[in-house]
Amino acid sequence: MTRCDPGHKLRGMTTAFVPDQWYVAAYTREVTRELFTRTVCGESILFWRTVDGAVTAMSDRCVHRRFPLSEKPSHLVGDTVVCGYHGFTYGADGVCVAVPGQSRVPRTARLRSYPVVEQDSFVWVFIGDPALAATTRIPRAPWLDLPGWTVVSGMEPLAARASLLVDNLLDLSHETYLHGGYIGTPEVAETPITTEVDEEAGIVYVSRHMADAACPPFYANSTGITGRITRWQDIEYTPPCLYLLHSRIAPAGVLPNEDGSDPDAFHVEVVYAITPETEGSTHDFWAVARDFALDDEDVSDYLAKSNRTVVLQDVAALDTLEKVIAGEPDGYQELSINIDTGGLAARRMIARMRDR
Ligand code: FES
Ligand SMILES: [Fe+2]
């Protein structure tokens, strides 16, 4: 069985990679007939589409002398990839079909291939024992690929371990301080959260419902609301990779109808995929889906720009934390309070998944 190799341990590391799980490797738009590479959980993976459009995922290291197959002059010929160093040629399943100078292809000449699925605008790759892929759930983010929703999205590289991003996203009280002027207002930090854990489903829920709050620019400028708002933040995190923030914004006092319909509110689904690149770096995929102003490109541009700014504020803070942790002596004790219950629940769930 091949498991995700945790590699060298970094100082202060509390969560290594979780093996035998699906991870977001890319947006579907990133994988084309060009060779594309991304490192997931320390494994360099080559992605490309067959002539028929299917996504393939295989090791990005030629079995001969390790030349990266994503590196020019490696190239595609039909449904094969030709190594740019000495010409080993591999099919879409990673099996070598031709080598130079001899007709016999060694039986062991095959690239490791990875289970791969396109879903909800993401390319998901399974890291671990491929035999477990079919029975391991891929969490859903349907709004990213659903009529009635408009999406802006991106990915920022993070020079910090994935667990720092999990901490960050599970505790949104930091919006007030780190993201003031964008999505933070005093009420976010002031309002207590509720945390629930569904062990069976493997989901951590964190909710903060603000009955009467200031409307931050992010929502004022996109919805047009000018006064106070009722603002709900409902987090649904499925470790290790998929984080959803169901955000509901309405004029203060406006609640959903008894039948669950909610025509007078604005809904934003904020989606993050937290994919470890190495033990100390992370792919920070972010997307913002909305059910209003669907065709308004100014709103799309504004939300894309603002959300990217917010993500980069987090990236700067977490990159700093990674350096702090790397440079500190062993034994530092964090202090946790009520705002941390979601993050601590996520840590426990991840540790159980990793160690089972
Ligand atoms: S390294 Fe790929 S063919 Fe030699
Ligand atoms: Fe943040």
UniProtKB/TrEMBL annotation:
Residues 22-125 form the Rieske domain. One of its GO terms (molecular function) is methyltransferase activity. This is Vanillate O-demethylase monooxygenase subunit. The lineage of its organism: Bacteria, Bacillati, Actinomycetota, Actinomycetes, Micromonosporales. It comes from Actinoplanes xinjiangensis. InterPro entries: Cholesterol_7-desaturase (IPR050584), Rieske_2Fe-2S (IPR017941), Rieske_2Fe-2S_sf (IPR036922), VanA_C_cat (IPR044043). PANTHER family: 3-KETOSTEROID-9-ALPHA-MONOOXYGENASE, OXYGENASE COMPONENT (PTHR21266:SF60), IRON-SULFUR DOMAIN CONTAINING PROTEIN (PTHR21266). Keywords: 2Fe-2S, Iron, Iron-sulfur, Metal-binding, Methyltransferase, Monooxygenase, Oxidoreductase, Transferase. It holds the Pfam family VanA_C. GO terms for biological process: methylation. It comes from the Bacteria. The keyword Lipid biosynthesis does not apply.
